[in-house]
């Protein structure tokens, strides 16, 4: 078999010179342009599937001919057949963004590709990769700090619809954008329903507790939220009851089929009656196991005991049902003494288990997965996983018991809450529509989760990227080292996001980006002027004349705006503050409120309005997203690739093949 590809670099960022018999690499070739072009090929397909009014729809065809039509960046990159290891870095970057944030996979790949492109230009201009990496790291740290200090806004300070706006922003480029109001409220309700508190006292929103079930028929607006867990399967036999309430649930992660001898075991018999006894014993072992399950609350069989059997339940669903109902997944009946037992403390509970018909499919609904508070008596109802000799079954058994908080894992000493789990029942015309709805809702669920857990949001529509670009461009002018060039290119790379958004919306990208930069440039420099004005006012009232004289001389020497501030505001400020009784109210009252209004209007939240083709305050317009920095992920991926000197494809080892 072919050996994997190997990439080498040292820890300090300097590429290791490679001189092998396979090929002679130039020691002066620090960065290969071919490697950069491989990753640009991965990102060449992603820009046209980004934005609110994007036109890109990729048709993906696999080896067996299955067709997937989507504009989701994570889905496109996941299904790509990528061979080059450096290009695989971008694919893994998109998967990381999808896992951590849930959305923004297209943006993070585009930013990383643009950073690599500009890094390649710097290398061609004889800038060492170490200087580029150092500049990129500095720009990443400053950008992350700037987002936290200036751009991030607490969710509590916004209106109550901020969570809904986050979900709607994620849906704006999806198939369900026309019904974004309906689905956004559905998503927010589902995420808040799975709220829980972990052992450290932190509030978490495990969206894995939200099951998405797709059903053909009706329109998208007929989708609804179900409290409980839904299984896309029906009863094993028509004679079983349609509803069991209350329900006790046990989950078994092994088959209860007829026991058979393992391979390699031989039994020699001379009497045919002995063979029949062996077969009967195999069937009796299964009956004994079933009896142990029923003895947990009943001593009768199957339908007579009011049991619902559900065939072919996936292992993932078994685990989710166990979490939702508080049951324990049992992998074997064997105990420490070698005997087979089943304890009733392993059972979960639910208000009812009922079979409903949605369109042409039968669906098992587990409703009423209540909160379970340890330290008190409670009602348990359970789900029995069972296999008959022909098909895999899961049994839902109805029994009412009162039990304590003792489990096989020990005594529960801390109070725990098992919150309600919910299921989203999606309705649509066909599989294509339902698949796109599922991917869109998954992204919105992840965005809402991150917003609630991080408790901070930022303005969308290219507002963050434009603000960071202007700030880093100004920061680069204050440096006198080679990192200045890298930071300047970093700042220019961030503008690729608003440019692509404008192009995909059929707007003039050059004009819109220029207006956007002008707003943020004015915000940045006006902010520094206001600080100088406030400092000048403070000097006039709280400093002596000698100190004022020295500060004026220093301001003239440095060419700062402090001198102008002192002269322009000297007469006005004294007239204004002389009418005030409290100097503290004069300094903190009207100036602070007017500055806040000015910041909100002209401030750092200005982004693109892709429908009207103008620049607006996207924070007030509700175009917001979580303050999870995709710039950090893109920069780390870029630095990883820049640290690699070259790729060596090892030859096939013929000696091992000869031995085989």
TrEMBL record:
<dbReference type="Pfam" id="PF00118">
    <property type="entry name" value="Cpn60_TCP1"/>
</dbReference>
<protein>
    <recommendedName>
        <fullName>T-complex protein 1 subunit alpha</fullName>
    </recommendedName>
</protein>
<dbReference type="InterPro" id="IPR027413">
    <property type="entry name" value="GROEL-like_equatorial_sf"/>
</dbReference>
<dbReference type="InterPro" id="IPR017998">
    <property type="entry name" value="Chaperone_TCP-1"/>
</dbReference>
<dbReference type="GO" id="GO:0005524">
    <property type="term" value="F:ATP binding"/>
</dbReference>
<dbReference type="InterPro" id="IPR002194">
    <property type="entry name" value="Chaperonin_TCP-1_CS"/>
</dbReference>
<keyword id="KW-0143">Chaperone</keyword>
<dbReference type="InterPro" id="IPR027409">
    <property type="entry name" value="GroEL-like_apical_dom_sf"/>
</dbReference>
<dbReference type="InterPro" id="IPR012715">
    <property type="entry name" value="Chap_CCT_alpha"/>
</dbReference>
<dbReference type="InterPro" id="IPR027410">
    <property type="entry name" value="TCP-1-like_intermed_sf"/>
</dbReference>
<dbReference type="GO" id="GO:0051082">
    <property type="term" value="F:unfolded protein binding"/>
</dbReference>
<dbReference type="InterPro" id="IPR002423">
    <property type="entry name" value="Cpn60/GroEL/TCP-1"/>
</dbReference>
<keyword id="KW-0067">ATP-binding</keyword>
<keyword id="KW-0547">Nucleotide-binding</keyword>
<dbReference type="GO" id="GO:0140662">
    <property type="term" value="F:ATP-dependent protein folding chaperone"/>
</dbReference>
<dbReference type="GO" id="GO:0016887">
    <property type="term" value="F:ATP hydrolysis activity"/>
</dbReference>
<dbReference type="GO" id="GO:0005737">
    <property type="term" value="C:cytoplasm"/>
</dbReference>
<comment type="similarity">
    <text>Belongs to the TCP-1 chaperonin family.</text>
</comment>
């Amino acid at each position: 078999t072919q050996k994997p590809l190997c990439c080498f670099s040292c820890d300090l960022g300097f590429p290791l010179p490679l001189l092998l018999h396979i090929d002679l690499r130039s020691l002066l070739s620090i960065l290969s342009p071919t490697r950069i072009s491989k990753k640009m090929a991965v990102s060449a397909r992603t820009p046209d599937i980004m934005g609110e009014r994007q036109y890109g729809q990729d048709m993906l065809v696999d080896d067996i001919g299955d067709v997937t039509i989507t504009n989701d960046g994570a889905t496109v990159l996941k299904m790509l057949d990528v061979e080059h290891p450096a290009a695989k870095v971008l694919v893994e970057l998109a998967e990381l963004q999808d896992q951590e944030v849930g959305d923004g996979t297209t943006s993070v790949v585009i930013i990383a590709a643009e950073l690599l492109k500009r890094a390649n230009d710097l290398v061609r201009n004889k800038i060492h990769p170490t200087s580029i990496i150092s500049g990129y790291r500095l720009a990443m740290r400053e950008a992350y700090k700037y987002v936290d200090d200036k751009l991030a806004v607490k969710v509590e300070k916004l209106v109550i619809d901020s969570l809904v706006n986050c979900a709607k922003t994620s849906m704006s480029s999806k198939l369900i954008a026309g019904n974004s109001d309906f689905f956004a409220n559905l998503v927010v309700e589902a995420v808040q329903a799975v709220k829980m508190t972990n052992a450290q006292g932190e509030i978490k929103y495990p969206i894995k507790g939200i099951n998405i079930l797709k059903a053909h028929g009706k329109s998208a607006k007929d989708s609804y939220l179900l409290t409980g867990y839904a299984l896309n399967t029906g009863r094993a036999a028509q004679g079983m009851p349609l509803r069991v309430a209350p329900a006790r649930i046990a989950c078994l992660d092994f088959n209860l089929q007829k026991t058979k001898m393992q391979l390699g075991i031989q039994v020699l018999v001379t009497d045919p009656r002995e063979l029949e006894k062996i077969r009967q014993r195999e069937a009796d072992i299964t009956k004994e196991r079933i009896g142990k399950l029923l003895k947990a609350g009943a001593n009768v069989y199957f339908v007579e005991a009011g049991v619902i059997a559900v065939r072919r339940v996936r292992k993932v669903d078994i685990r989710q049902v166990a979490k939702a109902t508080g049951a324990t997944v049992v992998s074997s009946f064997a105990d420490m003494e070698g005997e087979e037992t089943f304890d009733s403390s392993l059972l979960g509970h639910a208000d009812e288990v009922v079979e409903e018909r949605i369109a042409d499919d039968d669906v098992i609904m587990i409703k009423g997965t209540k909160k379970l508070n340890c330290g008190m008596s409670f009602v348990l109802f359970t789900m029995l996983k069972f296999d008959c000799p022909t098909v895999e079954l899961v049994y839902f058994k109805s029994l009412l018991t009162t039990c304590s908080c003792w489990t096989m894992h020990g005594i529960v000493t801390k109070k725990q809450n098992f919150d309600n789990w919910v299921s989203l029942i999606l309705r649509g015309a066909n599989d294509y529509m339902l698949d796109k709805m599922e991917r869109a809702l998954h992204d919105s669920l992840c965005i809402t989760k991150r917003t609630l857990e991080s408790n901070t949001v930022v303005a969308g529509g290219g507002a963050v990227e434009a603000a960071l670009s202007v700030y880093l461009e100004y920061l680069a002018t204050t440096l006198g080292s080679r990192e200045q060039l890298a930071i300047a290119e970093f700042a220019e790379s961030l503008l690729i996001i608003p440019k692509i958004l404008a192009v995909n919306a059929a707007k003039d990208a050059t004009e819109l980006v220029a207006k956007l930069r002008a707003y943020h440039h004015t915000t940045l420099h006006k902010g520094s002027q206001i600080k100088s004005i406030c400092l000048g006012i403070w000097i006039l009232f709280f400093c002596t004349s000698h100190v004022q004289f020295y500060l004026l001389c220093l301001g003239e020497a440095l060419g700062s705006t402090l001198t102008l501030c002192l002269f322009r505001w000297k007469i006005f400020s004294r007239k204004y503050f002389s009418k005030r009784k409290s100097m503290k109210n004069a300094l903190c009252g009207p100036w602070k409120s007017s500055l806040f209004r000015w910041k909100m209007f002209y401030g750092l939240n200005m982004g693109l309005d892709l429908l009207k083709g103008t620049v607006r305050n996207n924070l007030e317009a509700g175009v917001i997203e979580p303050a999870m920095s995709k710039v950090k992920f893109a920069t780390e991926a870029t630095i990883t690739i820049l640290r690699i000197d070259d790729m060596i494809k090892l030859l096939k080892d013929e000696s091992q093949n000869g031995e085989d």
